[in-house]
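Purpose: get a first structural picture of the assembly so the mutagenesis plan has something to point at.
Setup: four entries, given in the order below. No constraints added.
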Amino acid sequence: MRGEYNTRQKREMLSFLKERGLKHFSVDDAVFELQDRGEKIGRSTVYRYLEQLAAQGAVRKYQSVQGVTQYQHVEDAAACDGHFHMMCSKCGNLFHVDCRLMGALTKHLMEDHGFALDPRETILVGLCGQCRNGGEAAEHGADTASGCHHCL
Amino acid sequence: MRGEYNTRQKREMLSFLKERGLKHFSVDDAVFELQDRGEKIGRSTVYRYLEQLAAQGAVRKYQSVQGVTQYQHVEDAAACDGHFHMMCSKCGNLFHVDCRLMGALTKHLMEDHGFALDPRETILVGLCGQCRNGGEAAEHGADTASGCHHCL
DNA sequence: TTGCGTGCAAAGGTTTTGCATGGCA
DNA sequence: TGCCATGCAAAACCTTTGCACGCAA
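Result (structure tokens, whole complex):
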């Protein structure tokens, strides 16, 4: 059975995931950052463990436009059910969209277009507030979700 | 200057694109189908020409979950400006969404979330009507766009 | 004839896999 | 001690690039 042993490498990966927050990363990012910290970790181990985490829903996995696989920590998999995500094409942060308008859109697409929108597969792409203002990439872009009168 | 010569290979590719309709395809799909027809075409030629077509907006290019680049014919590039697309995860068809509700969503995300949604990058993923009904994959799924009282 | 287009083969980059070793329980 | 996890290297893939030849204009 996989995932039984609690190894140093797994602990390091998990700590890395927590620090990354909403930001996506590639296998290279993870390997280099962990090696910069002085930690030894093999590339295949990173691939294999991320694959495991993706299977259990702890990380999201998708392809960037450049064709490199990107990963992202999902803090609470259950909390991600039923709502959407939007990704900033500049800073790469992924934001939750807990907006009732998305529910309305889902309903509308189903009723009037016969299309069953899948919140887990769909990612809205655009520019977040921080990046539009020429600012630095936000560490955590939770601001983007606040102040919405449609949101629950 | 590129794209000056009208070669046999380009004509074959364009004919292939027309037949594919709304369906996406990989470089492999194109090469194999053309070779099945008895046409000779080099793999690099397919890559290079698709790259050209993508640059001029005649095909859309994106990454599948499996990390393989997918291409899709865009009949009228101008007609695709300013609206969204939804893709059926089963049959692979891509549909236009000319719906006013998407405009409302764009406006809302900008005003209340500070997020500038990009219609060209965003693809809504789900199941189309044909595939939900257990039916065959639709050749052209234009039905999905009809009968919407929000649509222009 | 000119120079863009094509095809082959090689290079480049990313991800997967086989196998021997290491380390958790 | 048993067995999963790890790391290395090789393999497998996909895509890009260099170069000589072919072919449209």
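The mean pLDDT of chain A is 82.
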